[in-house]
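Task: sequence in, structure out. Protein: Aerotolerance regulator N-terminal domain-containing protein.
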Amino acid sequence: MLPLISGSAIAATLLILIHFFGLRLRQKLDFSHIQFLTALISKTRSVRRINNYLLLLLRLVFVASALGAFLLFLFQTRNNSAVSPDKISVVVDTSWSMQSPSVEKERSKAETANDAARDILREVSNTASEREISQGTEAVNVPEGQTTFTSSQSLVDDLGNTSRSTTTYLLSDFQRATFSPEILKSLPKEQSITFVSLGNEEVPNIYIDSVWLEQPILLPNSLAGISVRLAGSLQGESSQVKVSASEGEQLLGATQVLLDPAQKAIAHFKIPLNSNTEKQITFSVEDPATAFDNQYFVILPKPSSVHIKVNRSQGSNDPIIQAYKAEPAFNFSQSANNNQGLWILNIPANGGSSALATGIKSWVNEGGSVLLIPDAKALQSTVSFLANLGLQGVSEESKEIGTKPLKQPDMSDAFFRQIFEKEVKNMKMPEAKPVLRWQSSFHTILKFTDNAPFLSTFRVGNGNVHLFAAPITSASAIVAHPLFVPVLYQLALSTNASKIVLSHQPNNGSIIVPLEKEVASKQPYALSVAGQTFIPDQRVRQGQLFLTLPKDLGRPGFYNVLQEGKTIGSIALNIPRVESKLEAYTVEELKEILADHGGNIQVLAPKERVSLQKQLQKETSGSSLWKYCLILCFLCLVVEAIILSTKKSGSLI
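Result:
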């Protein structure tokens, strides 16, 4: 501003000097008679009169413009002083997506945000009485490379807790996957907030979307089949992606998959299980352009087997026992100490004892599963026994109902997903004579052709109760069917499938860790990594540990779970997959979403080679009309100088 005023003052001084003390440019003309000048003198007087009126108008405009420039400048200065905030808060988004590349080459969004935060504080230090950079709700220094698992909702909640007299600058990439329109609209309308959008739609990102086991149980001295699903963000063309698996420094395998835009690809690995210990496996994807989420950590639990407990009177000819004994993944025991397995028993014809019912309830409450098989002659006592277990709505089937065929299974059901490699059409199904019937259940696995259930699952306590509608003996037609053994295996394997947790993605900064055996202790659980120990906010309920991760715990990897200083297990923390989806809102889209907030929320995107503070001043100050008034003053002086110069150069007197 000062150079502009100084330049205008110097120019005005020069023009005034020319106006009052300009040199008369005289020219000598030789004429034979003065009569030839009469017409010229008359014309010169008319032009001089017009020039005088024009000079009067220009000088009036000059005076009005100069006065207007002074008043507008004074008004804007007072206005800016009146709206200057008493407190300025600069909030830098520290989520994982901020580690992706920014518009500036070879710099991350977090680095750009840190520089912009310093720029804001440096420029406003003369007008703000109190300054701070906030990360969440705590006043800290500019976060250098620090990343947290904090959600966008908690970030917006922290902004809502800021006082109304505070002007807040929020620097983020505003991902579509994390900042929903509802979250953005929940911002307080009375508070002054400036969004600085750091989104970059030019650099694609390839990441690991999820990892899962191809079988629900891990057996000792075998190969664990693992599927790794890849996805892309902002991907414009197909690319070959290299994926590798390693344990520590040892490479376990590598493969390549073709990833098409807006699609997902699956890579398959076989990991050897040659010991009775858990394995910490790291899957890596080759994506040098966006490297912050190239690794995915999983923990393979110890190889184990499924516990089978049998109370059947069929003896060695029992087809169910024969089917389970053919697979080494199942072991038999009559002990009731281990409730994490499958208990197979016939429904007692006399209704059973109260001790048996209590034992079954305890089994399922501990997470075990029960497979109930009715007798050929179901009585009312059978129905009463099932009702006592919590299976409501079960009744005796009519004696007039004979055998009827089973319906072909629904291969889209997740229960049958891994039974057959490909869909079998026109499968010939066996027949069975039902003795029980029911209307509803948690999940019906097999049905008769009239849609009456044949095998269903009921949720009881923390476990499952599987119920057949017909007895299963060596003479049953279903025993010889190819579907019989796979269905039995799935019933047993599903008992342990829910217990295997390969990794955790702390969405909203929270995770749930299953506990094998809850030990009563006043000492809290802790997480440790690389010599550091963290004690998160926590609570234990129904054999699960609910943890809210502290903000200074933001690194993915393997963590040990401690209780009373002893390691009781380990977990793998990964970057939430939503952080890898880099599609962001544009400035125009953010303005449209926040249109209801009026002028309290402003949105801008940093420009290369332009100070962010200058952009902020332009947005907040608006157009400076006093500058246009000065320009008009300058133009008036220029035109006046031209008129006076023309007048003096052509003067004859």
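The chain has five domains: 2-83+624-649, 87-203+582-621, 204-301, 307-497, 504-581.
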